[in-house]
Amino acid sequence: MSRKISKAAVIGSGIMGGGIAALLAGAGVKVLLLDIVPFNLTDEEKKDPAARNRIVEAGMQAALKSQPALFYTKKQAALVSTGNLEDDFDKLADCDWICEVVVENLKIKQDLFKRIDGIRKKGSIISSNTSGIPLYKISEGLSEDFKKHFLGTHFFNPVRWMHLLELIPGKETTQEVLDFMERFGEVNLGKGIVWAKDTPNFIGNRIGIQGIGKIMQAVATADGITVADVDALFGPAMGRPRTAIFGTSDLVGLDTMVHVAANSYDLCPDDEMKDTLVIPEFVKKLVADGNLGNKSKAGFYKKEKTPEGKRLKLMIDPKTGTYVEANKPSFPCLDAAKKAATPAEKMQAVVYGEDAGAKFAWECTANALIYCANRIPEISDTLVEIDNAMKWGYGWESGPFESWDFIGVKKSVEKMEKDGIAVPANVKAMLAGGNETFYKIEKGVQYYYDFASNSYQKVKLNKSALSLVACKADNKVVKTCPSVSLIDIGDGVFCVEFTTKMNALNREIIEFMGNVKDYVMANGAGLVIGNQAGGMPGAFSAGADLSYVLKLCKDKNYAEMDDFLKLAQYGLQDLRYSALPVVAAPYGMTLGGGCEVCLGAADKIVATGDTMMGLVEIGVGLLPAGGGCLNLWKKFLRALPAGVEKDTDLAKLFVPVFLNVAMAKYSMSGANAIENGHLSALVDRIILNRDLQIGEAKKEVLAMVDAGYAPPMKRPLTVMGEGGQGMINAEIYNMQCGGFVSEYDAFLAKRIAYVISGGQVKEGSEVVEEAILALEREAFIDFAKEEKTIARIESMLTTGKPLRN
Amino acid sequence: MREAYIVESVRTPGCKNKRGKFKDTRPEDLLSFILKSCVEKAGINPAEIDDVMVGCAFPEAEQGINIGRIASKMAGFPDSVCGATVNRFCSSGIEAIALATLRVQAGWSDVAMGAGIESMTFVPMGGNKPRPHPEFSKEDPTAYISMGITAENVASRYNVTRQECDEFAAKSNEKAAIAQKNGWFTEIVPTPAVKFVPQADGTFKKETFIVSEDDGVRPGTTAEGIAKLSSPFKFGGVATAANSSQTTDGAAATLVASKEACERLGLKPVAKIIAYAVAGCKSDEMGVGPKYAIPKALKIAGLTIDQIDAFELNEAFATQAIHCVKELGIDINKVNLNGGAIALGHPLGCTGAKITATLLSVLKRTGGKYGIVSMCIGGGMGAAAIFEMV
User: Fold this and answer.
1) Model's pTM, two decimal places?
2) Contact indicator for A62, A82 with CB cutoff of 8 Å
3) What ipTM does this complex have?
């Protein structure tokens, strides 16, 4: 535990190096980012430090501008200092971890590490981000201390967003270094760790490229299956990203994909499915023609505009090598998958269907599953590593073995054998032993089938990695309904888990929350509000259930609306002032009502790095009326040291709170939510690993319990009053004149200012919480009476986009 | 009424707010320095001064607590010299000179000063604590309207084009650059400024240096070069950062003495104000103010517009300046001969005092007799003063 990484070096400032540097900065580590001095400098430029750092500076700028963003907030870029490999090489002697991310060329890497071996401080960790070159070749001939501290750290692009970090031990790497890097990668950098072996392309790319290779070959010969068909078959229906196979290849770049395939082909001479790695002619032609995917605006797909300006999506026809208009895929198996409720049923519908698409999907899936089973123990000791690599590095919702469980191992093996496909011995042995699944959960613990010992073994998890699925499987649900459950997560702590689509807050959840307090007061010590729904970045809660709100608007049922809002407001406020410590665990979309839950109920918020948090109700013509206006103002106000409140110009707090609500500001990261004020740097916490979030939130609850929790004292709030309303009236008029806001925006914004400032009262007055809650409800109902608000809600429900009217 | 003569009129350079050379210099330092310089150049014992009227558009914080009195004390004037702060927003400086003149004319003072100060770095436009009235801001929000919107309104209501504005802005910079090159800003007194210099140990040290020139002039500005900028005030608008006045720090001072005082103290009269007028207009097009104020002042003086030899027409925005010139039929070749606020800056409450000093140096250089200082005023007014050289 004594090892620390205070300063790290990243060598190579390309998209991966820049991404790793940004991630390290996000974890609070000082980073030295180095790259080469450009080769083509004039004699004069050779003396100019700016010219010498041109490559690294360009890399840094690209990292700052990258979309999706690599830095959590641009301010963290101040932790990254840049330099070049000639003038700044000595600075590596200070670094606790040196991560190499240079071009994939063995000689260049060997030369670089030889220089590093001469300068690095003893005991420092050195790693390579190579995605294909064997590590033992890279470290050949280097010092013993170097080899003891050298390993592979293989990140995936984009580094901030892809959860996977493959760690590859060298032959001589010490256990202390491996243990440390596992913990550092998981806890500090927030990654999902997969232990790989020093085999070509490690795990994710080895499996991923074979699957793509097989499908590319199959589509080149299959009758009546197009590129678009393939992506429909291997998209969400199979639990894969919408971009599926060919869309993803366009995103990654065909050149990169071909390079990875060639690497597998060349370096794995004994691979039994080597033939699937041969790049088909039509793909070779695309690469030769420079059609490398999105970066060259043409790949497997190409977007064009007709002379009439209509957008046209083209796809490559593998038979002719020309672009044709993309068809709209339609297969009975996809229709059946759409109707299916669970991921397992969806997958079964696709692979066991009768149509041509289903048969294609079956052939490729069966091939891929067999390939995976054959890779154990060659590339990893357990099937868990392969599943995790594909989920975290390729964005699959379930890994190959989990998917195999979904379609039924026994049933699929029978079908394979009927089709004359050779089934690996390890899978047959498992079935022969009467074990029909790769995974099982017993008493809240997940087990996997271990081929080596022919038995089930516990899935190894970090101590903080608390799984709600496992708790539920262990009968720990104490209260439940279709939209929400209360789960006993141990040690007297309970977790409120939303389970609606996008975790939208409906009446059922609001009513449920009202009863949670009484239950936990009687049976427990504290509460976590959090869930573990999927998605990248996913949704803690995307806000109130708009279809319910719309129905109330249309029925003009304002009494129920008031009742609903009151229930929500007082449910959250009661939790806040109860003798229970409450920790909210937001991640991903934490919008509108989702944000209000965190602001209102929680003593402390444990958010993830990728938290998109904000009160965005104005987008649908409403305002936060679940206590959001009250609690955001309170969060700002109470951040002042006691005693200075009376002498502070409250406008300095009021304006940003107003803008947060009136401009529907939401953060692009947890760190950004601190900048916006939805999170507090002093009270709340940001963790980068979502897998550890509920466990960490539970720890925070217990820490408050141990410290002798007492709820905050409820006292009136000093408000901005009429002083704030005059400011906003004047400024909104200017924005309206400038055409920056619509008349309706102005109407909404002025009323929002009225609510946040505490209504008709003098600046600096004290107002009770209940008064602001009443102002919220009144304004909400008045807005709900407006046709333009109804139009905004309808637009959001039908198009998913906000309407500006 | 007695004759009241301007004996001396000087100014500090105008420097860009927050980024310019006065960004670390307190407004009281700028003002007290220029008051003292004015008195020294006039060659008069400050004990002779009865009152100091100081124009300031946002007289609060560093510019508050009656900066007119504070700065007089800092200038080393004796306790007997009084001071007041005068506010009519952008015409505060000329208002202060007019008030000093009136005191002398009325016989209430023998010698008085009119001055102006604004550090837009220290006190931002709108002040530190703006609080529009909660009800009136709804009833008539134009009372609090942003100046940029008024500039856009002038453009759209009176057909001023983007092209005209950008050409006008380029010309303003060109004239200012030529004037700087030829040393025509004889009214400027090189002014001490301070800066906080970082030391090796991380602390800062206050150091003094001298500023001799306006620092916002952009030689080489072309209409094409600034055509790409978009309006921050209005979606698709015409008023941009490049064709609007710069926000600026600066101070200026003018000494006014009665005929008798001049004779008694051996002071040399330079000019006199023969008329000063203010005129109201709509708040949401405040930029048109000069087109009402100038005719009003001309009528008081009994002059016609063609008798005026030089105009210092404050360029709050190119849109309003162009409109006023066109509307009044002013010969553009007589307007802002040394460039205007687009190039030289508009330190709000100082501006009237600042461009008075500039006008007198222009009239001296060109041998003109009559000159006008005029500007538009936030809230919907115009001010115009007519000067006659003596």
Assistant:
1) 0.92
2) no
3) 0.91
